[in-house]
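hey can u run this one w/ 2-acetamido-2-deoxy-beta-D-glucopyranose bound, need the structure tokens asap thx
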Amino acid sequence: MARNLRSLHLQPTIITIIVIFSFVLLGKFYSGSVNKVNSYSEEANHENNVHHASTRINENHRVDLPEVDTQEVPHNGRENATFITLARNEELEALLQSIDQVEKRFNKNHHYDWVFFNDNDFTEEFIQRVSERVSGEAKFGKIPDQYWGYPDFIDQKKAADTRERMKDVIYGSSESYRFMCRYESGFFWKHPLMDNYRYYWRVEPDIKFTCDIKDDPFRVLRETGKKYGFTLALYEIPFVVGGLWDATREFMEKYPEYIHPHNAIRFARLDGDDQSYNNCHFWSNFEVADLDFFRSEAYEAYFNHLDRSGGFFYDRWGDAPVHSLAVSLLMDRNDLHWFKDVGYYHPPFQNCPVDPVVRQELNCECPNIPDVDPGSWYNFAFESNSCIMDYYIALGRE
Ligand SMILES: *[C@@H]1O[C@H](CO)[C@@H](O)[C@H](O)[C@H]1NC(C)=O
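ok here u go:
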């Protein structure tokens, strides 16, 4: 199957069809769910079975023991970890819905902390109602102004022209969406509230967890030494990541020392002579990851390179493709992890365990969304516009 897909990538007409197909589907999603997604979109409109890899196989097909960090001893059975959410006061109800999902399927047994960020002050009501629902400690932070605005090297006229040029694309005319993407790409772990944590799990308003989560995803990462976990991988709208691939290639030429020799860049790159971007990315609205990666010199260098090129403002780069290219390029490919048995639904995409025995064991209630919403999928992973196959190809498991 993977092999077939690779040969597909060599056929330009088929690539075009796939790209157009995913563009149409994404367009459908974005147009259909604008009032469901968070208020950043509203502003855009106004502004005009967890895999326990206890061993690893290295390039020489030898089995290595995982690198367990013995200093990271779990605290009362809990890992050194927190949930994080970027939200606005208006999103309270949608957020409480997400919190209830996380608590019901997972956190009621663990009581992990939860850090909330906002570019404004949270209201008393927000703080009170959210705190009541989170079974761990809820913490509330305001994003410092220096991370929510234009850096001095950005030409604001050019940024305004970009917003005008992109006004027909989802969030294309939004300033705050761009500030958010830049914050999630470059700064969220720099907030003092994050200093005491090693791992984070990102949650957005209006999502669902559709199965019990029995294996603690934080523990899975620590025990296996992995660093980045995802549930959904798909094609980004090519129009919004113009320039991102070129900036990334420039980075590769300029800083070869940061490129991991055993990387997964094939996840994001087509085979063939031009080696262009295939627009694959991990959907970052669900992410469980090791902050040490984002705190690393390599990531800092990559982010600064992208930031200086201006694409967060002269384009509309999302944090999802930025994180995805970074982990594909700078990490060992074995440090990526697909949480394939985490049932997760962010309209219209859903990940649901494939094995019926697992679905039963985890009390899954994956909605049969294609009935309700044609153009949605019961399990997106193996659809033609999912990038899971590219992920497997990148791992070398063709
Ligand atoms: C948790 O991780 C942070 C960041 O790596 C570290 O500074 C802190 O000491 C860790 N805490 C514990 C209890 O291990």
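The CA atoms of residues 114 and 138 lie 5 Å apart. anyway lmk if its weird
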